[in-house]
Design a protein that fits this description.
Layout: E1 6-15, E2 18-28, E3 33-38, H1 44-51, E4 59-64, E5 67-68, H2 74-78, E6 81-84, H3 96-101, H4 116-128, H5 144-157, E7 162-166, H6 174-191, E8 194-198, H7 202-208, E9 211-216, E10 219-224, H8 226-229, H9 232-239, E11 243-247, E12 254-258, H10 261-268
Parallel strand pairs: 3-8, 3-9, 6-7, 7-8
Antiparallel strand pairs: 1-2, 1-4, 4-5, 9-10, 11-12
Amino acid sequence: MTVDSFAAHGLHAGYDGREILHDLSLEIAPGRITAIVGANACGKSTLLRSLARLLAPTRGEVLLDGRAIHRLPTRALARRLGLLPQTPLAPEGITVADLVGRGRHPHHGPLSRWTREDDEAVAEALAATATADLAERAVDELSGGQRQRAWIAMALAQRTELLLLDEPTTYLDVAHQLEVLDLLTDLNRARGTTVVMVLHDLNLAARYADALVAMVAGRVHASGPPDRVLTEATVLEVFGLESRVIPDPTSGKPMMLPLGRHATLRAASPAL
C-alpha cells in the first residue's frame, strides 16, 4: 500500500488553551520528501504532532487517503504512519535491538508470533543506520548521536509508507547528518515512502527535500519546490534575516548564505 494523499485542512491546535496553529491547510506530496522549516516557536513541531495524531486539533482535520486519521484504529494507522518525535524516551535498560524490534509491534496481533520478516526488517534497519554493532548495548548508555540513530532504526523497522520525523539530525555531527538524510532519500526512492521532516538547517532542507513548507506564527507562509520557497525575500520574512541565495555548487538547489550585522558592515565598508 502507498499513500495517495495526505493533507491538513483548517487545522487549529495548541496546548493548555493557547492556540499555536491557526486555520492551517497543507497538501503533502505523496511519494516525495517534504521539509518543514521556520523560526523557533513558529509551530513546526506542533504541526508534525498534529499530522501524527499525537495532538488532537480543536478544529479542522488531517486526512490520509481521504479518511480522518483521528477516526482510524490505532494499530491500522501505525502500520501506515511512522513517527520519530523530537525527544523520544526509551524504557530504562532496553537494548538497541529490543528498541528497534518495537517498530514491528503494529504488524502483530494479540496472538501473532515473531516472523522471519520481522527479523529481516530489524536487521535491515540496523544495517541502514550503522547501529548493528550496538544491538546489544543499552540505549541509555549510548551517546546522543548513537541514540538518535537507534530511534531512526526503530522507525525504519516499522516499514510504513508514511514517515514523519521531528529534527532527525539532532545530536548528529555533520557526517552523520548527511548519512541520515541520504538514508531517507534512499528509502524514498526505493520504496516510494512519503517523508515529512522538520529541519532547522535550511540548506540541508533545500538539498534533500522535494518540497519546502515555510511556517510563520502557526501558519504556512510559503510552500513548494525549494527554488520557489528558499528566496532572499522568504528568508527575511520567515527568519528576519538578511541573506544571499545562490545555487548550491553540488546539488544545484538554492543555498542560503546568512548576512549577519558584521558581514553587512564589512561588505559596505571600503577596503583598508
